[in-house]
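Comment thread on ticket #2218

A.B. wrote:
> Attaching the input chain for the structure job we discussed in standup.
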Amino acid sequence: MSPQPGTITSLHAAPAVASTTLTWDPLGWDPLIDHFRIYAVAGESAPPEPDEEDLLGKTVYPRFVHDGQDPAGETW
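C.D. wrote:
> Ran it. Output below, let me know if you need it in another format.
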Protein backbone atom coordinates (compact mmCIF):
# COMPACT_ATOMS: atom_id res chain seq x y z
CA MET A 1 0.00 0.00 0.00
CA SER A 2 1.27 3.49 -0.84
CA PRO A 3 2.08 5.92 1.95
CA GLN A 4 -0.35 8.72 2.70
CA PRO A 5 0.12 11.61 0.25
CA GLY A 6 1.57 14.89 1.44
CA THR A 7 -0.36 18.04 2.14
CA ILE A 8 -0.95 20.37 -0.78
CA THR A 9 0.88 23.69 -0.73
CA SER A 10 0.47 27.13 -2.27
CA LEU A 11 -3.32 27.07 -2.18
CA HIS A 12 -4.74 30.11 -3.97
CA ALA A 13 -8.36 31.25 -4.23
CA ALA A 14 -9.43 33.54 -7.08
CA PRO A 15 -12.91 34.98 -6.51
CA ALA A 16 -15.20 35.88 -9.40
CA VAL A 17 -18.90 36.64 -9.79
CA ALA A 18 -20.78 33.56 -8.50
CA SER A 19 -17.66 31.35 -8.32
CA THR A 20 -14.26 30.79 -6.73
CA THR A 21 -11.36 29.04 -8.45
CA LEU A 22 -8.95 27.13 -6.23
CA THR A 23 -5.46 26.23 -7.47
CA TRP A 24 -2.50 24.61 -5.71
CA ASP A 25 0.93 23.16 -6.42
CA PRO A 26 0.65 19.60 -7.75
CA LEU A 27 2.07 16.79 -5.65
CA GLY A 28 4.79 14.45 -6.87
CA TRP A 29 4.21 11.02 -8.35
CA ASP A 30 4.94 9.02 -5.18
CA PRO A 31 2.47 8.05 -4.02
CA LEU A 32 0.36 8.25 -7.14
CA ILE A 33 -2.69 10.44 -6.50
CA ASP A 34 -5.95 9.24 -8.06
CA HIS A 35 -7.86 12.47 -7.35
CA PHE A 36 -8.25 15.39 -4.96
CA ARG A 37 -11.39 15.67 -2.81
CA ILE A 38 -12.61 19.21 -2.17
CA TYR A 39 -14.56 19.86 1.04
CA ALA A 40 -16.13 23.13 2.17
CA VAL A 41 -18.52 24.33 4.85
CA ALA A 42 -20.55 27.52 4.50
CA GLY A 43 -20.04 29.99 7.33
CA GLU A 44 -17.20 31.17 9.53
CA SER A 45 -16.12 27.85 11.09
CA ALA A 46 -15.43 24.31 9.94
CA PRO A 47 -15.50 20.94 11.71
CA PRO A 48 -12.14 19.43 12.75
CA GLU A 49 -12.58 16.51 10.31
CA PRO A 50 -14.14 16.50 6.83
CA ASP A 51 -17.65 15.11 6.55
CA GLU A 52 -18.91 13.46 3.35
CA GLU A 53 -21.91 15.80 3.25
CA ASP A 54 -19.43 18.70 2.89
CA LEU A 55 -17.79 17.22 -0.24
CA LEU A 56 -18.06 19.78 -3.08
CA GLY A 57 -16.42 17.59 -5.68
CA LYS A 58 -13.38 15.73 -6.93
CA THR A 59 -10.73 16.62 -9.49
CA VAL A 60 -7.69 14.94 -10.99
CA TYR A 61 -6.12 18.35 -11.63
CA PRO A 62 -4.61 20.82 -9.13
CA ARG A 63 -7.54 23.15 -9.86
CA PHE A 64 -11.20 23.28 -8.80
CA VAL A 65 -13.98 25.75 -9.61
CA HIS A 66 -16.65 26.19 -6.93
CA ASP A 67 -19.49 27.69 -8.93
CA GLY A 68 -23.17 28.38 -8.39
CA GLN A 69 -22.50 30.82 -5.57
CA ASP A 70 -24.66 33.84 -4.78
CA PRO A 71 -23.44 36.81 -6.88
CA ALA A 72 -23.96 39.03 -3.80
CA GLY A 73 -21.29 37.00 -1.98
CA GLU A 74 -21.00 34.03 0.37
CA THR A 75 -18.68 32.99 3.20
CA TRP A 76 -17.07 29.55 3.02
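A.B. wrote:
> Thanks. Noting for the ticket: The beta strands are 9-16, 19-25, 36-39, 55-59, 63-67.
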